[in-house]
Batch of 4 targets.
Target 1
Amino acid sequence: MSDPYMPLTSVRSGIGFEAAKGVHGLTVQIANVYFIQYPSEPHSFILIDAGMPQSAGMILNEAKQRFGDDYHLKAIILTHGHFDHIGAIEEILEHWDVPVYIHSREMPFVTGKEDYPPARPDSKSGLVAKLSPLFPRHSIDISSHVQALPEDGTVPFLDEWIWITTPGHTPGHISLFREDGHVLVAGDAVITVEQEKMADVFIQKQELHGPPAYFTPDTETAAESIQRLAELEPGALLTGHGIPMTGRNFRSDLMELANHISSL
């Protein structure tokens, strides 16, 4: 059974956007999902993350608007298993019997075996941080659909993309990277809004930040993951929260962010 609707939202909720060549985004309340077009089939796509609870209708409607009435979902790839990235996945899988891919270290959280650790409401100031103990952190069980990503870093169905391990926010968090355009789908490894503050989340104030502190138990490893992403010299940051940043090399910005987090 899916979690109940959560009344957390932003001014961009329900707005679709072109994030990069072949990549379409949609803001679902406070989180972003991405649709990567399958190269040889213009009506087919791979979904990256699955949004907030009870958002399946919004996601599938956006797919129809973007890819046409005969749209076809090939697979779902999860950056990690937090509630705001898997909220609609069970309902989507009722519509589309497709494989789901996630890092092997995230498997316990999507096969009913392990819950995420408790939230850390005092990790940073802000109303969202204070509310975080109320957020779902229990596992789901999609064992019949989920499988581990290939260990060689390749991404199923997406030959131009690789996945990079970016733990810290969760044990098996991953990000996706495409050399063409230096496009980074970062998940929550790095975000572009101060997710702990309700007002900033609502207006989607665009600023570069590390992963949501209230759900990040290992900040040192999170900083190392940001450094790893900086070395890719991304030119487009497509994040799990906040408005994407594009148009320049973000290497120095990410290194500065990693150093800041390391010093906290």
Target 2
Amino acid sequence: MSRPNHQWRTVRATLEQACDRFARLLTSVPPQTMATRDWTVAETGAHVASIAYLYTAIVRQDGAPHPMPELAAPIASTNVDTVADINDLALRSYSERDPAELDRRLRADIGEILRVTEHLDPATLIPWLGEAHVPLAGVLAHLVNEMHLHGWDIARSGRVSWTIPPREAALFFDLFLIGMIREDHGRLMDTAGPKRSGRIAVRFHSRYTTPATLVLQDGRVSVEESSPRADVHVAFDPPTLNLMLFGRVSRPKAVLTGKITAWGRRPWLLPPFLREVHLPTNRRPRRHYATPTGESAGA
């Protein structure tokens, strides 16, 4: 049984639960509170709602029109270094900022996603950012992660409690990240600057995920199904890994708290590996339009 099939029911139930938690949080913190350096709570909610709105179309198999046609071309040509531009464009296109209406729309769109995908194969490949292709189960896991991360932003700004359950966070690694890299990450992970030549193999371990080895070979990353000699082994707590990958928790803090540990025959290769195999943290040096916008880790 494939990994997506094995966890299909889990990710669907988790998406519904995460939506309920996030929507209730969104309406509990004043909307003009700054959730990040540049985004208010209302804008953070609109960012998440815009992704759910987009996903109501991309998960369909009936040729439904793109709900934001102005994003179609930029989405296809983006990579991790330019995802911020997509997020800016999406926020300009998705103008709703009222928390109660965002709550209603988010619940409705996630309900539609679950309805449309109920009888689809979770391994179905969905065209995604940068001409990547992600298994359907991974698309749902990505949306769960968006609510985890941005819920963390909102809760911290409002000084309220927010937990990211490890089993839920693990879905992002198993279904989205590994699923996308195993299938086709297109140009999404192509970054600017020189590429390191040679090979680095990093094996990731967690009690909540299937062990997986990512191999960086001459600037291209892949999943290696069998890796008897990894250069580095990384044991991780899934919530901490996700927060670290998207710039919420620093690498030193993740290591010092014992949530991320590394060992192996060549552990010094982990920093250069992470410089090339990374996800968008997108901290803007300036504002891009009139109303406060900005940090959008996790497009």
Target 3
Amino acid sequence: MNRTAVKITDEELVFEIVKTNNTELFAMLYDRFSTVVYNKCYGFSKSKEEAEDLMQDVFVRLFVKLKTFKGNSKFSTWLYSFTYNFCVNYVQRNSYKKKEKVTIVTDQIKENDTAFDDIDDVSLLELKSAKLAKVLNKLEPAEKMILLMKYQDEKSIKEIKEILNIGESAVKMRIKRAKAKVVKLYQVL
């Protein structure tokens, strides 16, 4: 492997891959990001094998879609968003996942919305992890991932905003609603 190739930035590597369609350079990109992509896929999957398959599918699709990266953000942020969207679409296509969804009447959320204003992060994190894992599996994929981005991946509101391509207030509201849903589901388990 060329020493100078190792020192190039992710963005330079991506632009070179797009320009040359060089599969060896793509393999270098794969080496740099396969663990990160696998970990994101694992959050959406039921097993290590399914996560591995998902990761491979992400990279196959990525090779085709790489030319859509314009360099307006860091490549790692763009890839995180690409992986997130791919996995959300995957989960929504699978009917066995859809059967696990829990519906909460929106009127109940609206009535009790002010009760969740005071939920602090410490209270959310103090919930027992086994029970919390069950609750997280009952959330919609988008709700689960925004909480995982915030609390597991320790992404800032600004980073989540960039990944999801939504406004800062929308990120805060989605996190607030997802936290409220977690607390509500946790109480009935």
Target 4
Amino acid sequence: MDAALARRLGDAQFPQWAGLPLRPLDQAGSDHVIHRLGEELTVRLPRHQDAIGQAAKEYAWLPRLAPHLPLAVPVPVAVGEPGFDCPWPWAVSRWLEGAVATAGALADSPRAAVRLAEFLTALQGLGTENAGGELTGELTGEPLTDRDSATRAAIAEVADVFDAAAMTELWDAALRAPGWDRPPVWFHGDFHTGNLLTTGGRLSAVIDFGGLGVGDPARDLTIAFTLMSAGGRAAFRDALGVDDATWTRGRGWALATGLNAYTSYAAVDARVAAQTTRQITEALIG
């Protein structure tokens, strides 16, 4: 998924952009290889099969959701077809300027915490009626219980790094917590620091909606444990109006996803190791 492949795909399928310079981005996520195309576009190529539905999902839904959200989100402009050595659909989106948000800059910012609560409030407030039959498919997120086996295995794997008893206690509490008993709402699905952009030190955009879905919004509370300190979390929770059961499920999501990333990448990526260590630790604090 290098620049040569991105160039061949783009030139063949979207010749209107063939003359634009193409350069890879140093930091990209675990799901996509990203190249900047000219000054206004990005090319996103899936790294693995689990990411192949994102291009079509974002192209279908983000233009409908974006006008109602208080932070910028990616605007997909085209979905490319498999070709050459790329076996999956890929995407061209509008470039969003900004730096990736960090806990070091924003952990103690009540303004940032409230801004994120406002974003989630707006997202959750959008109607889900037009989702139709897709609620039984691509927009249905996995329940927390589906992660039970993998999470318990991860707890055992990292027992020499983190407090296994505390992790097990939190995980059991999250699974026991009453489920979401209100109408399903939109959730981002992968709401952590790596998917937030800042400009001028302030939050400006939310990216990477591959996990977008409709259901229990607790999974989006992960941001409270990847980005915020205890004070920021209090402001965030108050602004969002989160009940005890949803907060406990959110801590469970933060623990499960943090453990998954830690066991998968910490040994080979110091940045991920630091981020997920913080996420797991803060989830245990609550």
